[in-house]
Inverse folding.
């Protein structure tokens, strides 16, 4: 039985995505090529690795075993790259980092930029996920490092403080709510929203909070960035919810009012999460230390 690294990376991508189509995209393979590789892996092993269904794929017992060993093999390769990177010209290392929307947009660009500047041979494979999905991925070995909010149960993982993320509502200066200093989420739901596009971990989190109280968000428009949400809020297209850091930045160029959300879930402590006994590569350990000790200018 012989699998190459492309096989192993593809298999883990499919397992994480729960879909051969999406996994093939992550692995930069066509669907046909990915399907052929997966069938070849099952033929070589003489065992079914994936259970295929109408809603995607799940691993069989044999597939779980392969996924476990594939993670170990790829992690050892990352360790090899990290330890030899200083000596071998052109040999690149990669660190997988999963984070929620606020961490990716508001905190990580500057912090990662500083670190990558002094580690030119290392790449960061950064993916946006909901905190609950990040906990599962890190616990299962699909990622070395995650950044999550305290809204999820991270029992069994090691947590390192990263940042505090406060969510605020943004409205036009002439909006009936503009003079309020704070508002509860329930009252905000009486108004039409401008939100982030589907697939945003933060917007999914906000929709989940609405569902918990039996409500749904009414969207007039969904856009790609916090800046777009604020710009449309300023035009009174709809109210929005963004991190406080984004609202402060946008207030320099757009006429919006920011209202503090009084709900407990709107103030989130972000943490770096790791498996407690994880043998991180030297580069990954250095990155964690940098992210945990970063002091903004």
């Amino acid at each position: 039985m012989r699998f190459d690294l492309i096989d192993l990376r593809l298999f883990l991508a499919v397992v994480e995505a729960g879909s051969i189509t999406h996994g093939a995209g992550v692995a930069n393979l066509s669907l046909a090529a990915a399907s052929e590789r997966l069938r070849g892996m099952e033929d070589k092993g003489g065992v079914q690795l994936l259970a295929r269904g109408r809603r995607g794929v799940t691993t069989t017992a044999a597939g779980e075993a392969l996924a476990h060993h594939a993670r170990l093999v790829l992690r050892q390769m990352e360790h090899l790259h990290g330890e030899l990177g200083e000596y071998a010209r052109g040999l690149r290392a990669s660190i997988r980092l999963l984070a929620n929307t606020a961490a990716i947009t508001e905190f990580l660009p500057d912090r990662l930029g500083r670190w990558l500047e002094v580690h030119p041979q290392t790449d960061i494979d950064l993916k946006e996920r909901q905190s609950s999905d990040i906990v599962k991925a890190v616990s299962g070995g699909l990622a070395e490092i995650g950044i999550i909010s305290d809204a999820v149960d991270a029992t069994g993982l090691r947590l390192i403080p990263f940042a505090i993320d406060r969510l605020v509502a943004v409205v036009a200066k002439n909006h009936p709510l503009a003079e309020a200093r704070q508002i509860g989420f329930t009252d905000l739901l009486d108004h039409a929203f401008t939100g982030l596009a589907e697939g945003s971990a933060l917007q999914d989190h906000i929709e989940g909070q609405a569902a918990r109280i039996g409500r749904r968000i009414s969207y007039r428009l969904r856009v790609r960035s916090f800046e777009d949400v604020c710009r449309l809020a300023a035009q009174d297209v709809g109210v929005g919810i963004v991190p406080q850091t984004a609202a402060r930045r946008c207030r320099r160029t757009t006429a919006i009012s920011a209202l503090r959300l009084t709900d407990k879930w709107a103030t989130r402590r972000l943490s770096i999460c790791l498996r407690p006994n994880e043998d991180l590569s030297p580069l990954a350990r250095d990155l964690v230390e940098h992210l945990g000790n970063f002091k903004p200018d």
